Amino acid sequence: MTQAILREILDYAHRANPYPLYEELRKTPVLHEADGPYVVSKYYDIQSLLHDPRVSSDARNLKSPAADPLAADAQEETALPPSFLRLDPPEHDRLRRMTNRPFGPPHSPRRVYDMHGELKDIVSGLIDGIDNPDRIDLVDQVSYPFPVTVICRVLGVPREDESRFHTWADTIAAGLDPAPDADREERDKIVHNARTELGMYLAGLIEERRKKPGDDMLSELASSHGPDGAMTTMEVLSTAALLLIAGHETTVNLITNGMLTLLRNPDVLGRLREDPKLSVPIVEELLRFEPPVQLVPQRTTLADIEVRGVTIPKGASLWLVLASGNRDPDRFDHPDRFDPERGDIQHLGFGSGIHSCFGAPLARLEAQLALSELARRLENPRLLEDPPPYRQNAVLRGPRHLPIACDGIRP
Predict the structure, then answer these.
(1) What is the CATH number of the domain that holds 171?
(2) pLDDT in tens, 2-57
(3) Contacts of residue 361, Cβ cutoff 8 Å, sequence gap at least 6
(4) Comparing 3-12, 13-22, 171-180, 287-296, which segment has the lowest mean pLDDT?
(5) Sequence-separated (6 or more) residues with CB below 8 Å from residue 327
(6) Which among 138, 6, 12, 19 is positioned nearest to 390, based on CA atoms?
(7) What residue spans carry the region label Disordered (predicted)?
(8) Most buried by CB count within 10 Å: which residue of 31, 111, 200, 212?
């Protein structure tokens, strides 16, 4: 049953609505068959494992990488070393602290807050640029260029280079996706090449910033000497690559899934149009209801761990299905209902524990501004395709395009 239901979840045919499959998955909270991964799908189990120091994010601790279709490629280290997302303490903690110094509290407490006006101007400009209200591709015209522009400004990456790193980012993100029928060796080679090319591109930018620092994170990462010392060049490279890719890939999905959900719930969309402050609870409920990251596959056990009577052995591959936990009826009342007024919403949309989403404050603000501005300015918006075409990726799930129409654009 494990392999059968996993194949269905990974099958593109179910991308538009995997939630009935997650419901089936929860009937056996810890699924395992043969030498495949252990798949955990209930909220409290996932939450516990995300905080368990016996669970590793370092693929080097995986006993049998070949058993996991999503195991980190051994070639990856020859392109760029693992980012802190793929490391355990103490290495993880040191690099995350160093990355956080120019980004958030306690050293830069207003970094995201002070971007509010700039972010609003960017999203307003993108909406101003919509020239044909009869057919709008929300992904291409708003929800992709918005976070890309933002992360480029934060990092100090030239926006005109977007077409170059877009291809690399898509390829690297696709490498996260389970593809049981694909040629793994060929796919690993393609991902490896993309990481190498991205690394070479960022190396050039880092050298420029060291010679002439600017007011951006790349300059600060390349030149900062805090209590933890300085990052090596390779650590700056892997951190910058992580922030560049993660800084827009998931936010694109959050905004697009959000607008799709609002168009399917016109009453909520109407309320948001009248009260932009509703964007805050709406985004939190979206992170539960349609999380941009559906599952966390690259985890490994450092010791035998028992979950609901099942022993997950040391060195096993562990998958945590966040989107399933977010719809667990043992945790949330009426979990399949989109309800922004939900009072208790400790969702798993940004993960939890030491690897909780580094960019969560920025992603929240971007989604709140994008959805409130779209609700306010699009007159009578409506879907042209439902369901829309989805990206292939089952891990980073979201529409590849979202065709909509409206009667006009309000000033």
Answers:
(1) 1.10.630.10
(2) 568 888 998 999 999 999 999 999 999 999 987 789 999 999 999 999 999 999 99
(3) 104, 112
(4) 171-180
(5) 19, 22, 23, 289, 335, 336
(6) 12
(7) 57-90
(8) 31
